Amino acid sequence: MRKISRIEPDVPVIRKRKKVAAYARISQENERMMHSLSAQVSYYSEMIQKNPDWEYAGVYADSGISGTGMKNRAEFLRMLQDCEDGKIDIILTKSISRFARNTVDLLQTVRHLKEIGVTVRFEKENIDSTSGDGELMLTILASFAQEEAVSTSLNYTWARRKNFEKGKPQARFRVFGYRWDGWDLIVEPKEAEIVREIYSRYLNGDSLRSILDWLKAEGVKSSADRTMTRTSLNIILSNPLYKGDLVLQKAFVADPLTHHRKINRGELPQYVVKENHEAIVSPETFAAVQELRKKHKEEFYFVNNKGDRSCFTSKIRCGCCGKNYQRGYRKNPTTETYVFWACGKKRSMGAASCPSRLVPDWQLRNMCCKALGIEEFDEDTFNEQIEIIEVQEDKSMIFRFKDGHEVTVPWEATAKELAWNVERWKEGGDSADEECNNDSGDHKPDDADTDK
Fold first, then answer.
1. What pTM value is reported for the model?
2. Which of 86, 137, 407, 433 is least surrounded by CB atoms within 10 angstroms?
3. How far apart are CA 24 and CA 83, in angstroms?
């Protein structure tokens, strides 16, 4: 008897290919390093495309950037965003030190990638982040990578300070009135005449505002080819460079991992090289200007009855443009007058000049409590521990402590809701800065240093 069997069609199962990318980084931009970066990119591109089980998702490469932080590594951040968007399943990298030299950043990043299903493979150490002992090995080896970075930084710092002791600068900075010839400062005649005129006008009683108006009318630009600002004039009027002296180690890196620079206020020795180069103004003229600047400050802060300073004065910096925040006053139709803080550039140049946000004084104090870990704001504690507050555009504040560490606190801008009535709201734009009270005590006099 015949038997009939049914043969089902054999449909091959196509395995889904993994989306694979690679990350490469070099910390210095020189010919040898750039060749190394190019070789890494070529190597990973070829390696990924040769594997039939992998789908090429690109190679991300940062050049001339340290691995101790992440915020300045544009390609690294772009890669992480692509991981969030589901464009990458596996990341290949040469070694732990190429991926990150900061142990905390490394572990936090790898753990988060693991949570969203992304694997990181470190070739040199032969570690897979999803393996059982992967995180243990990462923690141990990342600590070594971090210590190596710290050691390298300390060695570099030691060499710099030894050169400072010998009176040798470590960078050819831009300075109005001079040009560099090798490691020698040479007077630029046209700019030197402008510097002398600035000193002369200031000693004759002109304010910085009137001097700025004169410079603008003459079309004078700063050393960076930008419009002269109050900060530019303060630097010119206070820099001993113009009397022929070179001051070394005016700032230093407080933490080799965060690379946060601090103004040297006596923590480390400074070195003054007398008569290092040709002077533009005489020592007597320079000294007379410093005395006049000091007098103006004292008159403003101690004689002017509206010159009361807040503990926040000169300690709040705009993370968008770098200018100091200034104190102002607003009156809400339904509430009493209250204090807020606004970017100085935005206040003076208008809302379009800076995307920064206003911060109510009470909210600023609450953020300080969170950063300091205290329940009630205390000015003495604040002054003792906080060096600077940086207000970021991404609705966060970075609190930089005097011991070098940082704390980031998220916040929501509420200045509009608290201060604007319906009519003002319809007009739009953060024009509240224009209402800052110029006699608030935090709008500096013409000769005050507003940007440190």
1. 0.43
2. 86
3. 16
Strands 316-318 and 178-181: unpaired
CA atoms within 13 A on the CB side of 153: 20
The CA distance from 406 to 384, in Å, is: 15
Give the residue among 149, 137, 65 at the shortest CA–CA distance from 101: 149
d(CA 424, CA 306): 28
Q: Are strands 90-93 and 18-26 parallel, antiparallel or unpaired?
A: parallel
* Residues constituting the chain: 452
Q: What share of residues in the chain are helix, strand, coil (percent, to 5)? A: 40, 20, 40
359 dihedral zone (left: phi>0; alpha: psi -120 to 50; beta): beta
Q: Helix H segments across 204-349?
A: 208-218, 230-238, 283-298, 344-349
Rounded distance between C-alpha atoms, residue 125 and residue 144, angstroms: 12
Closest by Cα among 320, 413, 417 to 367: 413
What phi and psi values does residue 121 have, to the nearest 5 degrees?
Answer: -115, 125
Residue 68 exposure: Cα atoms within 13 Å on the Cβ side? 16
What is the reported pLDDT for 60? Answer: 92
| Residue 29, beta-bridge partner list | none
Q: Does residue 449 have a pLDDT over 60?
A: no
Q: Lowest mean pLDDT: which of 73-87, 157-171, 347-361?
A: 157-171
**Helix runs in 266-414, H state only:** 283-298, 344-349, 361-372, 379-385
Is there a contact between 344 and 325 (Cβ–Cβ < 8 Å)?
Answer: yes
Please give the average per-residue pLDDT across 137-148, as a whole number. Answer: 65
pLDDT attached to residue 432: 38
pLDDT digits (tens, 9 = 90+) for 266-321: 677 777 788 888 899 999 999 999 998 888 776 655 444 444 567 888 889 998 88
Q: Residue 327 and residue 337: Cα distance in Å, rounded?
A: 13
How many Å apart are CA 187 and CA 276, to the nearest integer?
A: 12
**Torsions phi, psi of 66, nearest 5?**
-70, 150
For residue 111, the SS3 value is helix
Question: Which tens digits make up the pLDDT trace of 363-418?
Answer: 899 999 999 988 889 888 898 889 899 998 878 899 998 887 889 998 876 544 44
Q: Taking the CB of residue 30, how many other CB atoms lie within 10 A of it?
A: 10
